[in-house]
Amino acid sequence: MYMPTLRRHWTVEDLEELPSDGCRYEIIGGELLVTPAPTYRHQAAVGELFRRLYDYVLQHGVGYVFGAPIDLEFSRDSVVQPDVAVLPLVNGKRPESFNDVRRVLLAVEVVSPSSARADRVEKRDLYRTERVGEYWIVDLDSRTIDRSVPSDARIEVHDEQITWKCEGATEPFVLDLTNYFARVLDA
Fold this sequence. Notes:
Helices cover 28% and strands 33% of the residues. It is built from 5 helices and 13 strands. The chain has one domain (38-185): tt1808, chain A, CATH 3.90.1570.10.
């Protein structure tokens, strides 16, 4: 379950001292967020989306897809681990650390009851502030994907398909949501 813990200002150095216990530890604005290990359903959704994005990004040679855990350190007191992140290439190669690029083309979270508040509020605000190209929230219960972009305060809700035009790609990534959710949930 997502839970902010102990009222203090957390930093990257504090994260390094936490146990490796299967939980995901992130900080946003100095607030520690703890979520338990994901469910199989959650992992199926992440894996299927990762595979499809990986194929697209590889085909177009525009970036690299990473899955959690990956630390995106925006500041000493804001480090998050999206379920899926697409980062641009560095001189035509995979970045070796987030410090190599300092940009995120796409960040994706698969929402669960334990992470809903953090995903829908804190992370959305952080990604907008940090100018992340797009932020998607995959909602398995409603079979939708919410899209946020930094230039628009509105949230788009997609239930049939979502299209993403990655910078540098010659054609957009198109995800048929009926097919995606059927593969993930009805398998």
